[in-house]
Amino acid sequence: IDTLSRKYAMQLVSIIGAHDSLRFAEIEEHLPTASTSTISKRLDEFEDAGLISRTQYNEIPPRVEYSLTDDGNEVRTRLEPLLEWASTDE
Q: Can you say whether the dihedral through the CA atoms of 27, 73, 18, 5 is positive or negative?
């Protein structure tokens, strides 16, 4: 709960979960109001919590992709109704 209550955390779970995997720049495009350092910090926290996996490819330029783990997908499944409710204008 502590990790998910941080700024942009719930949105990140939803964004990453909506795709098979995303690169950092693609995540930034989905969260234009979030700073690069905030996104990076959340991704590190999610990786430490076992919610996302980080895959680094040995290419030039380097390529890193983020995807939800099974635990991350379970969190997303439970968060989606809350995020949908929060976005309604009632």
A: negative
Distance in angstroms (rounded) separating the CA atoms of residues 50 and 61:
27
pLDDT in tens, 9-31: 999 999 999 998 999 999 999 99
Q: What is the pTM of this model?
A: 0.86
Q: Please report which helix (H) or strand (E) contains residue 68, including its range.
A: strand 63-68
Q: Is-contact 49 3, C-beta < 8 A? A: yes
15 is written with which tokens? 């964004």
Distance CA 64, CA 16 (A): 13
Both tokens of 12, joined, read 């990140």
Residue range 54-59: average pLDDT?
A: 92
